[in-house]
Automatic annotation (TrEMBL):
Protein name: 1,4-alpha-glucan branching enzyme
Source organism of this protein record: Denticeps clupeoides (denticle herring)
InterPro entries for this protein: A-amylase/branching_C, Branching_enzy, GH, GH13_cat_dom, Glyco_hydro_13_N, Glyco_hydro_b, Ig-like_fold, Ig_E-set
GO annotation terms (biological process): glycogen biosynthetic process; nervous system development
EC number per UniProt: 2.4.1.18
Regions annotated as coiled coil: none
Keyword Transferase: yes
Catalysed reactions, as listed in the record: Transfers a segment of a (1->4)-alpha-D-glucan chain to a primary hydroxy group in a similar glucan chain
SMART domains tied to this protein: Aamy (SM00642)
Catalytic site: D308, E363
The keyword Glycosyltransferase is assigned to this record: yes
GO molecular-function term, one example from the UniProt record: 1,4-alpha-glucan branching enzyme activity
Length: 685
């Protein structure tokens, strides 16, 4: 196979992939034991290279590189007479490239490990980063979680204040929240340096540099170290699908040519993203990208990656104008970019060979078969793919359908339609859904009422009541049915209002929407803390019973008339009533295991913004009466403890109808002679 031949070539030419992927130890800037600094670059299209900077008074030509084989250039700077470094920590550098056309171009080393932007400058500067006392990582990596519960995060917006927040703020103020919420994985966005803040970190300019707008490399290391001490793994949002078109502070035209790291001509351009596309067949591009993965794993001790833009990589058409129906002809043909596919296989093979607990996630909307099967089986080697159809379905339902027209079968189909044996990360909404032009699920549900009617001191109006109950139901059914992992974008767990918009010319450089208002959760009189509490207890319950790591659910009911969904997973029974007005008394549900069931989690509990109508002391007993393809069944009901004035009084039931929206979630613990089981009934209000 192409992968096997690449591995053989690596063995022959580089002594194996271990050394090849550590090329950050030989390229860029390297301090030798005797204090000598060695600078090495790959610039095949250049006529000459010079190093200039603070160290030589910005003399353009005093320090030329020596031309080596295969387009490589090298420069040795001996230590000062007193043994100190010839280039001081924190001083600025530039590579001056002389092109074959006679141009002189200022460039940043592609391997630069720290770049900064002066206050009044547009362009980033390469800064020599060699601190006398670098941060020492203290805590080992946690083991790979059995069930992956991901908190998708952006350091810069992780504060209620209208400014760019810092790594240190995230460590001190956000990590404790993530731990409390029960997430065991953080996916950090926008860490690889990007000159344009509003690109959300997806137009990378310096691939080896942690973004300096949030602080120093040492402060990022401390963030990851503290997360590890809490038992939380940290994934990096890895952008190897394309690169920024910036030239002076990016990779584009590094050596003056149109190609170098990228394909020349139209193949090297992404028409929609206005960015450059890597030439994955190039030996030195493979060195650069594979070493980049290794760098973040070794230097910062990340635990894996979420690969961005995988669909764009897999196909020559980049997914543009292609609706994927699932027909195999769409995945196997000349439209597949084999170079990219082999790169992804190579990346996954190397990562999983070197790091047993490494986690890789693919952002792929196409449904490429075997993307998440091992490379040894001929798969691409990812651990998970994002279930990208799920958030789109929720937005479509909320935008296009009345509550009474929701299609239970359609919801179930979307949540369960995944390739068998390929793990998915389910999510109700991510950063994509919150971007300007769209809005968070909470804002779709409650809109302007969130500004005036979120007080817990007064009864809920119908809009807030419906919104709070559906917000919990959507999350719970997605969490329990939609995948083998779960993802939430920071702030959305508590119903963050509005949308995301970064400072840019179009909004007068405003930070108003480029922040997360965690202060809303800290106000006891607001209902945001009720949504926060439900999300926390939903995660903690999963941690106890492990449905994400269990085989797919058995759906025993999806009743269109009743708007009821019933399924079992990990010995937990879930019941949802999505009917906008109907409640049900003595509702029979099928179960696979006999025994006694008790409520363990109830979305209608008062602390979650519910109406407290379930009696948690109620016990439910199965009968040997087959129902809905299950061997046993039981009737679910419970005394009404309270009826809110907004609701039509309904018969005693476990599942009831609210005015505008109906449902409830409860967890059931079931026991019989030889075993104890948990059975969960999320019938959400």
């Amino acid at each position: 196979s192409s992968l096997a031949s690449q591995l053989l070539l690596l063995e022959e030419a580089e002594g194996g992939f271990d050394q090849f992927t550590r090329s950050y130890n030989s390229f860029g800037e390297q301090r030798q034991p005797d204090g000598t600094l060695v600078f090495k670059e790959w610039a095949p299209g250049a006529e000459a290279l010079f190093l200039t900077g603070d160290f030589n008074g910005w003399d353009k030509f005093s320090h030329p590189y020596t031309h080596m084989d295969f387009g490589k250039w090298e420069l040795h700077l001996p230590p000062n007479k007193d043994g100190t470094s010839p280039v001081c920590h924190g001083s600025q550098l530039k590579v001056l490239v002389h092109t074959k056309d006679g141009e002189r171009l200022y460039r940043i080393s592609p391997w630069a490990k720290y770049v900064t932007q002066q206050r009044d400058s547009v362009v980033y500067d390469w800064v020599h980063w060699d601190p006398p006392s670098p941060y020492v990582l203290k805590h080992p990596r946690p083991k790979k979680p059995r069930s992956l519960r991901i908190y998708e995060s952006h350091v810069g917006i992780a504060s209620p204040e209208g400014r760019i927040a810092s790594y240190s703020n995230f460590t001190a103020n956000v990590l404790p929240r993530i731990k409390d919420l029960g997430y065991n994985c953080i996916q950090l966005m926008a860490i690889m340096e990007h000159a344009y803040y509003a690109s959300f970190g997806y137009q990378i300019t310096s691939f080896f540099a942690a973004s300096s707008r949030y602080g120093t490399p040492d402060e990022l290391k401390e963030l990851i170290d503290v997360a590890h001490s809490m038992g939380i793994v940290v994934l990096l949002d890895m952008v190897h699908s394309h690169a920024s078109k910036n030239t002076e502070d990016g990779l584009n035209r590094f050596d003056g040519s149109d190609s170098c790291f990228f394909h020349g001509g139209s193949r090297g351009e992404h028409s929609l993203w206005d960015s450059r596309l890597f030439n994955y067949s190039s030996w030195e591009v493979l060195r650069f990208l594979l070493s980049n993965l290794r760098w973040w794993m070794e230097e910062y001790r990340f635990d894996g990656f979420r690969f961005d833009g995988v669909t764009s990589m897999l196909y020559h058409h980049h997914g543009i104008g292609s609706g994927f129906s699932g027909d195999y002809s769409e995945y196997f043909g000349l439209q597949v970019d084999e170079d990219s596919l082999v790169y992804l296989m190579l990346a996954n093979h190397i990562l999983h060979s070197l790091y047993e607990d490494c986690i890789t996630i693919a952002e792929d909307v196409s449904g490429m078969p075997a993307l998440c099967r091992p490379v040894t089986e001929g798969g691409c080697g990812f651990d998970y793919r994002l279930a990208m159809a799920v958030p789109d379905k929720w937005i479509q339902i909320l935008k296009e359908y009345k509550d009474e027209d929701w299609n239970m079968g359609d919801i179930i189909y979307t949540l369960t339609n995944r390739r068998y044996g390929e793990s998915c990360i389910a999510y109700a909404e991510s950063h994509d859904q919150a971007l300007v032009g769209d809005k968070t699920l909470a804002f779709w549900l409650m809109d302007k009422d969130m500004y005036t009617n979120m007080s817990a001191m007064v009864p809920m109006n119908p809009v807030i009541d419906r919104g709070i109950q559906l917000h919990k139901m959507i999350r719970l059914i997605t969490h329990s049915l939609g995948g083998e992992g779960y993802l939430n974008f920071m702030g959305n767990e508590f119903g963050h209002p509005e949308w995301l918009d970064f400072p840019r010319q179009g909004n007068n450089e405003s930070y108003h929407y480029a922040r997360r208002q965690f202060n809303l959760v800290d106000m006891d009189h607001l209902r945001y803390q009720q949504l926060y509490a439900f999300d926390r207890d939903m995660n903690r319950t999963e941690d106890k019973y492990g449905w994400l790591s269990a085989p797919p659910a058995f759906v025993s009911a999806k009743h269109e008339g009743d708007k009821v969904i019933v399924f079992e997973r990990a010995n937990v029974l879930f019941i949802f009533n999505f009917h906008p007005s109907n409640s049900y008394s003595g509702y029979r549900v099928g179960v696979g295991a006999p025994g006694k069931y008790t409520i363990k989690l109830d979305s209608d509990a008062v602390q979650y913004g519910g109406h407290g109508r379930l009696d948690h002391s109620t016990e439910f007993f199965t009968e040997p009466l087959p129902f809905n393809e299950r061997s046993y069944s039981m009737q679910v009901w419970t005394p009404i403890l309270q009826v809110d004035r907004l609701h039509v009084p309904c018969p005693a039931s476990l599942l009831w109808g609210l005015f505008l929206c109906c449902g409830a979630a409860a967890v059931f613990w079931g026991s019989s002679n030889a075993w104890e089981r948990l059975k969960w009934c999320p019938c959400n209000s």
